[in-house]
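Encode chain A's predicted structure.
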Amino acid sequence: MPEVTIDPADWVCPLPLRETKRIIMGHGGGGILSEELIENLFLPAFGSGSGAGGPSRDSAVLTVPAGRIALSTDSYVVQPLFFPGGNIGDLAVNGTINDLAMSGAQPLGLTAGFILEEGLELELLGRIAQTMGKAADHAGVGIVTGDTKVVGKGSADQLFVNTAGVGVIPDGVDIGPDRVRPGDDVVVSGNVGEHGVAIMSVREGIDFGTVVTTDSAPLHGLVAAMLAADGLTGTRGGRIHALRDPTRGGLVASVVEIARSAGVGIALDEGAIPVPEAVASACGFLGLDPLQVANEGKLVAFVDPAATEAVLAAMRQHPEGAGAAVIGRVVAEHPGMAVGRTSFGTTRVIERELGEQLPRIC
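Encoded structure for chain A:
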């Protein structure tokens, strides 16, 4: 038999170089490279919050106080990855915390799953992971477990992030669309439209004359302050009847969803809705409705009018609720619909877009 010469350069799948500065397929293979990515990039970024299990384990063990559990998951595919005031990392952390907070829950822990495209720069991934760790630390919530997968070049747009969160709903807290009733005040926690415009300004390279930054922020502390101000829990139920974070579809999507779920009508005073001048100008230039532009650090509350003043006062004492305002009321008329009184004194039906005004904002 002739002698066979094996040339490693002819191998179909050459062994990856450990000194690489970019993601390679080996980082998703479950071997030494995967371990090094976790140990040297993710764990230092996520810090002590990962101690309950950590991204190096497939599950986490959490000590759960007595009470009801809230569970949420979301995926983040925003482009660009970085935008004024944040990036996909803190967006993923804050977005999942806020999903839990809208049920009145206080978060216990988060998971983080990454879909990484081959060729992604490790320095860029490290910056995003560091931002996630800082956001989780700021919110007082650990990233307790996670997963990493690598796909071939062209199979993903740099990176996607999936997060899940678990939280505990305190005894006596009962928040949901079924509790909304005619007479409730509609309260928003602050300016609307900032996140979507921040994304659009970078994505399209448009200069609006001023920098609009994302409003991305965790809202569980604000919700806790609102519930404490309400003061009614237990069998009587609270006077904060429902909460929503107006992300995709903006304020309009949230109020229409509540109107349809609760079988009530909602009347908004559009002049009372806080829309920053820069957002209004940008939306006018782009032909967008600011009430349908995404937010990532705002909430809409449906509150018994007997508690509105106390809840508003508590919100305005909190950094994430300093601009809180009453913007409308729940009514018995036109159930399932939201209407708005415009600044011209006319009334219009407020309806959701068929799709999205601004795709990939989260």
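Helices lie at 32-46, 88-101, 122-139, 194-203, 220-230, 250-262, 277-286, 308-316.
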